[in-house]
Every structure is written in C-alpha cells, then in structure tokens.
Specification:
This protein is α/β, with parallel strands linked by helices. The chain has one domain: Rossmann fold (3-Layer(aba) Sandwich). The protein is built from 9 helices and 7 strands, in the order βαααααβαββαββαβα. It has a 7-stranded mixed β-sheet. A hairpin with a 4-residue loop joins β3 and β4. The longest helix is centred in the C-terminal third of the chain and has 11 residues. The radius of gyration is 17 Å and the shape is globular.
Length: about 220
C-alpha cells in the first residue's frame, strides 16, 4: 500500500517553535496576548499571524541572524533518508513561514524537501505574511493540514496510508485525515482530550523505529 508522510515543522522538525519565538522576541512579548484566543479557536491562524507580524519591528539582517540559533530534531535527517529509501517523499506541512523553514533546512542540507506553508515577506523593517492557499471549508488555519492531506489522498489512484507527525494546536485539523498519527506536547494533549488515537514520540528516532516495527518500512 502507498504511504504518504506529512510532518509539521515548528516544534516538530525544529526543536523549538521558530515562529512563536520570532514573534515573541521582536514584539517584546506582546504576541502572547493573542495566543489564548487562537488556541481556543476564537481567533483564526490568519488573523493571529497577521497581527503578530504587524508587531515585528526589525531589519531583515536582524531577523535572519536570529534564526541561526534554531536546531532540528536529531533524528530527522535519518528519518528523511529512511523515507526515501522506502520510496516515500516526506512533505512538510506548516502554518509557519517559508523563509525561516527554508533557511533552517538549508543549514542541515535538507533544502531538497517539499514544503507547503504560508509565505513571509521581509521588507527591511519588518514582516508581512501572504496566505497563498484557499482552504475549502476550514476557517481556523492559514494552510489547513487536514484539507491538504485529504487532497493528496484524493489524487491517488490506489489505496494509501496517511501518516502525520506533529506537536501543536496548528496540527489539530490533520488528526481527522491521518491514518497513523504521531503526537507530542499540545497535540498529544488535544488527542487525549478528544479521544483521538495516536502514537507518542519524543524524537524522529521514535517515529522511524515505529514505522519499521509496524512493518511499514524496511530498515
């Protein structure tokens, strides 16, 4: 059976949430006032991200230098290699921004990866955000991961197993579309509260091991 694998970026591939830390640092923490409404669903990701970006006052050079502190999960490069060894192209689904995802992946020689995300424009004094995706029904997300996974599934002309790896509230919509779900942190709490089946992980070493042990992959 064909396997489709999707991974969140912030806090999942990256060890810390890059977007949150960027907005927090360059807004002096003012973005934190928006998060309760976003987490509860009273504010959409698009509104929250747009308002957070408006709080950022920094040069392009300052923002790019800030990104250099972020690292990725120690098991992710091996996970990517195992995916490709088994004929699967992992896809990054993010409600974050393309420029910092690409910058950090490039540091780890992972610039070849396919990324679906929102677009951040650095204008020399701050940041603006573009949302290139038109969600069909979702009003919560900038780029709805559940809808994207369903669209990939619908384009397949054979049975598929969908796998999603994530850690946060921006991954909630993916839970309805994933046949096999790996979760930690806020996403794990959501799954427990809503009785969603999941496999707990700490690093991508755990995900790789679970995929091999369940017979989906060859080591």
């Amino acid at each position: 059976m064909k396997i489709l694998i999707f991974c969140d970026f912030d806090g999942t591939i990256s060890r810390r949430d890059v977007g949150y830390n960027l907005y927090h640092h360059f807004s002096g923490g003012r973005n934190d006032l928006l998060l309760p409404d976003w987490k509860s669903g009273r504010m959409s990701s698009r509104e929250c991200l747009t308002r957070e970006a408006e709080m950022v006052t920094a040069s392009t050079e300052e923002i790019m230098a800030f990104l250099d502190q972020f690292t990725i999960d120690p098991g992710f490069a091996e996970f990517d290699s195992l995916c490709r060894k088994n004929g699967v192209e992992p896809i990054i689904l993010s409600d974050g921004l393309d420029f910092y995802i690409r910058h950090i992946l490039g540091k780890y020689h992972l610039g070849h990866m396919r990324v679906i995300s929102n677009i951040g424009h650095l204008n020399g004094t701050g940041l603006t955000i573009e949302f290139p995706r038109t969600n069909r029904e979702c009003r919560r997300c900038g780029a709805c991961k559940g809808e994207i996974i369903e669209e990939f599934r619908d384009r397949c002309d054979e049975p598929v197993t969908t796998v999603f790896v994530g850690d946060g509230y921006s991954d909630v919509c993916a839970t309805r579309a994933a046949d096999l779900l790996f979760a930690k942190k806020d996403l794990e709490r959501y799954c427990l509260e809503h009785k969603v089946a999941y496999t707990k992980f700490d690093t991508f070493f755990d995900v790789s091991r679970a995929m091999i042990d369940s017979g989906y992959w060859r080591a």
